[in-house]
Design brief:
The protein is 33% helix and 21% strand. By secondary structure, it is α/β, with parallel strands linked by helices. Strand 8, helix 8 and strand 9 form a beta-alpha-beta unit. The protein binds 2-succinylbenzoate and magnesium ion (MG).
Length: 368
């Protein structure tokens, strides 16, 4: 493959509802889209970082510069054997995996389209439908949270994830569990606690949670191992797993029993496949996390979720939960059984709504 054009676009998309986590509230997304071209054929990817450096160190403005000044020059016009070799072209850059992963994912989409294959088959996926859960943010009141959970359970979603933080945790989970004794329920802390909170977090063992996600520091594995030894509830690692090597280390240290794989967080499909394989070899189930993606990132997540070890329902849900209108057509829809039917069109399987993307675009730059 020889990429002859890379176009960066920053789009602005208001969320249907604000989304609040322990690190902040998002009301509208700014999303960096990456389009790659070879001989007139194109592929699209999405940089999944936030608007500010709060989930991890990346954010949209930095992503733009990293891609423009450091990644694109290493990829444009280079003779690259295949999409599987794109990540290595920027492996000398430290961090910035979401930025690099946005471009990497675009090249997989391009390659799949050139082969006239669905992306999910091209990466070795096998599922034809994927199981969906939802992630529900911190609300102003417990009543509002209960109302939202009721709605998503009615819609068919297979598990509910609620965000927690100090002051919005044990008592809220207790009320959710009392109202919904049988649902598959989990909590995501986004690194809001420390080991000093062990006794507090231990109270969550009472509620039969499927897992508690990333309770401790975003870059920690060691303390998670100490915490897991004290908890009955499985820990699921999100932020701190950025490479397959991290996954191996975390598994070896027993820092968690489940891994959330996010395509961007690990730098694209090549590394996501490796993380998936490491987890599978150790009998650790994985699921696909979300970053409030537009349809493009969502479609990539669906493809990723077709791999064999994506055993648990992911945070990949319907377009309409996020957007009045998505930038792909048709929008991602979830059945009343809480599943997404995988599409068989080439590449990521959806059409781009080009006019709408243009309308949403704040800036655009083409690199040749
Ligand atoms: O930790 O999984 C997370 C959203 C933004 C940043 C981090 C996370 C999330 C979510 C939302 O939980 C998942 C989604 O619905 O896309
Ligand atoms: Mg998380």
């Amino acid at each position: 493959m020889k990429i002859d054009r890379i176009t960066l676009r920053e789009i602005r998309m208001p969320l249907v509802h604000p989304f609040e986590t322990s690190f902040g509230r998002t009301t509208e997304r700014h999303i960096l889209l990456v389009e790659v071209e070879e001989n007139g054929a194109t592929g699209w990817g999405e940089v999944t970082c936030g608007e500010g450096p709060f989930y991890n160190e990346e954010w949209v403005d930095a992503a733009w510069l990293i891609l423009r000044d450091f990644v694109a020059p290493r990829v444009l016009h280079a003779d690259i054997a295949s999409a599987a070799h794109v990540a290595a072209r920027s492996a000398h850059i430290r961090g910035h995996r979401m930025s690099r992963g946005g471009l990497e994912a675009a090249t997989w989409d391009l390659e799949a389209r050139q082969l006239r294959m669905p992306l999910w088959k091209h990466i070795g996926g096998s599922r034809t439908q994927i199981d969906c859960g939802v992630s529900i943010g911190i609300q102003d009141t417990v009543e509002e949270l209960l109302r939202l959970i009721e709605r998503e359970v009615q819609a068919g979603y297979q598990r509910i994830k609620m965000k927690i933080k100090p002051g919005w945790d044990v008592d809220v989970v207790r009320r959710v569990r009392a109202a919904f004794p049988d649902i598959r329920l989990m909590a995501d802390a986004n690194s809001a606690y420390t080991l000093a909170d062990t006794a507090h977090l231990k109270q969550l063992d009472e509620f039969n949670l499927m897992m508690i996600e990333q309770p401790l520091s975003h870059d920690d594995i060691i303390d998670h191992a100490a915490l897991q030894a004290q908890l009955d509830t499985p820990i699921c690692l999100d932020e701190c797993i950025r490479t397959a090597r991290h996954a191996e280390q975390a598994i070896e240290m027993k820092a968690g029993r489940i891994i959330n794989i996010k395509l961007g967080r690990v730098g694209g499909f090549s590394e996501a496949l490796l993380v998936h394989n490491v987890a599978r070899a150790h009998g650790i189930p994985v699921w696909c996390g979300g970053m409030l993606e537009s349809g493009i990132g969502r479609a990539h997540n669906i493809a990723l979720s077709t791999l064999a070890n994506f055993i648990l329902p992911g945070d990949v849900s319907a377009s309409k939960r996020y957007w009045k209108q998505d930038i792909i057509r048709p929008p991602v829809e979830v059945s009343s059984q809480g599943t997404i039917e995988v599409r068989n069109e080439p590449g990521f399987g959806y059409e781009l709504h080009h006019e709408y993307i243009s309308e949403l675009t704040l800036r655009e730059e083409t690199l040749r």
